[in-house]
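Complex 199.
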Amino acid sequence: MDKINDVAVIVGSLRKGSINRQVANALAELAPASLKLTIIEIGHLPIYNPDVDENPPAAWTAFRERIKAADAILFVTPEYNRSVPAALKNALDVGSRPYGQSAWNGKPGAVVSASPGAIGGFGANHHLRQSLVFLNVLAMQQPEAYISGADKLFDANGKLANDGTRKFLQGFMQAFATWITKNAKSTNGAPSFVEAKAI
Ligand code: FNR
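Predicted structure with FNR bound:
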């Protein structure tokens, strides 16, 4: 059996009944056997403050180490006011520092946004992509995943109850598995086809 890739899943919502967490759980079930998805919690991370980083809280250090250890990152997020929730932005900031030691650098990634609304969190999806460019996360371009009407897709137990969405998410995870293999970081820690810039 080929290598199983460790995919760190970052869910942008902190809500217990989060639709996006349900989407993340569905993605974990639908992913091919070559991927192991694990949700990495972000709600407990103190708000990033460079002064505090002189003696970083244990939660920041553990989060950075966990992201560094991952083969790939999958973001599943709601849209808050046409952008990403503050908790997700904070996680990006925490992982990006100290300067020159970003945990995100060179990782293959993918973005899924989900909303009860009609445009499926498009604004959050693309605001997130703007940060991912700077963070040198190699975000899969296609297929895009804007899950609209997402409050209607799950049953009372939080299980995906829509065949069309199941098929789409399965195809998305297949494409992501291929993307991860193609863009795997080389063993010396540098991305395989782009040199990391100091950021
Ligand atoms: C929202 N919501 C929302 N939805 C959307 O499609 N575009 C938006 O800009 C916003 N803005 C927004 C701001 C804030 C502060 C909240 C709390 C909510 C609604 C949002 O999509 C809805 O609450 C989802 O259910 C949130 O995702 P989870 O928590 O279910 O994963």
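The CA atoms of residues 5 and 181 lie 9 Å apart.
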